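Support case: adenosine-5'-diphosphate complex. Customer-provided input:
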Amino acid sequence: MRRRSVKVRLTIWYTALMVLMAALVLAFVAMISSSVASQSSRTYLSQVVRGNLDQVSLVDGSLQLGEEFTFLQDGVYTVVYSQSGALLAGQLPQPFSTVSEPFVNGLTRPVDTDQGEYYVLDFWVPSGWESGVWVRGLMEVSEGNRTLYSLLLAAAIAMPGFILLAALGGYWLVRRAFRPLDAINATASAINEGRDLSARIGAMPGHGEFTQLAGNFDRMLERLERAFEAEKQFTADASHELRTPVTVILSACEYAEKYGETPEERQETLQTIHRQGRKMADLISQLLQMTRMDQGTEAAQLERTDLTDLVRGLCEEQGELGRRLIPDLQEGVTAQANRPLLSRLLQNLIDNAEKYGAPGGRIWVTLRRETGEIRLTVRDEGPGIPPDQQEKIWQRFYQVDPSRGGDRGAGLGLSIVQQIARVHGGTMTLESVPGRGSAFTLHLPEGGASLPGKNI
Ligand code: ADP
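Agent response - structure generated as follows:
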């Protein structure tokens, strides 16, 4: 069976509910009003008949009716019978010509005739000890309900019209409200079928929840598309970077097989393979580190760390390079930090200062606690970075001068540095004047970074 759309189901549901409610209300109103109407009919019958009682008297055995006696007043018939049941005055309604109803003093009761139901009320009017007359009032039951019936009829006729109007109006509103949802559906299908993340729902009129959802959906697609593109770029760059050393290794092997006759030549080939292998190993470990930080699969425990101690230790481990390092460290600077990650950040900055700074030039490492923050700066006296490149160097795989040979990296060092800074709730800044050098600074909040145990 074909499933109906939510719009149709919704419309059917509230229309059925409205029909049920209308029926219940009508039945309830009919019940209440019929009981009220029957009560007021009985009261009216009793009022008219009692009013007539005052006008009835027996003078010397003969019946005398006063001037105000009414035989028929607003549907109420009043008739007078003798003690033996003979009609003395008044005219019976037509159906009663064949019905004989026994007299009951003072009791209003319904009596069935072949032309409908009547209320009947009798009063015994005595005259002396033994004689008297019966005064009987009669009123058709439907008389009192007529207005009610016409009211109910009008309601019953109008109700389906109202319900139809409500159902159509509701369906129209629901359809309008659901329009963004249809658009979302169509866009999602287009993306699914075409595998094209660039499809968008576009602007929708109105401010309803679904319109907001459509807007959010578009923004989400925007982000997804960017992330997807970045991922694609990342994969392409990573494979390109890995392919280069692999190609060098393969051609080195081929060369050695063909021409590597002397031990010196073989030694040279092995060194090339070793260098390229180390490059690949470095790259793979960098990629792994970034992926872990991206995905948050590795929990970075931040704990109170003596930064002065950490930076001094790292500077002392630099071997040959240590002679060019000039540490300027404030004592007792502590922060919430992860030792291995922060060491990696500093090492990357020192490596860059060595690789891209002036050959044999000095490298300053400064640690300071200043107004509300802690600053760790690595400064060199190299050629600096052109202003138009200063934003880009933080991007993955970006290199200012990729053609430069030597022991250059793959352009991942600074993006790892930035990721580590973020994990610590800090930021990185760069001050660089071409020809005079560059200073990379880590800014950490003094009160400690985000909560310990934050995922990276
Ligand atoms: P890599 O791993 O190739 O060193 P990085 O992300 O560490 O990549 O650096 C990106 C680019 O920024 C480098 O290619 C280099 O051109 C430039 N760079 C980084 N540090 C310095 C520096 N101290 N002085 C001049 N240029 C630098």
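The pocket of adenosine-5'-diphosphate is lined by residues 352-353, 356-357, 380, 382, 385, 393, 398-401, 408-414, 438 (CB under 6 Å).

Case will auto-close in a few days if no follow-up is received.
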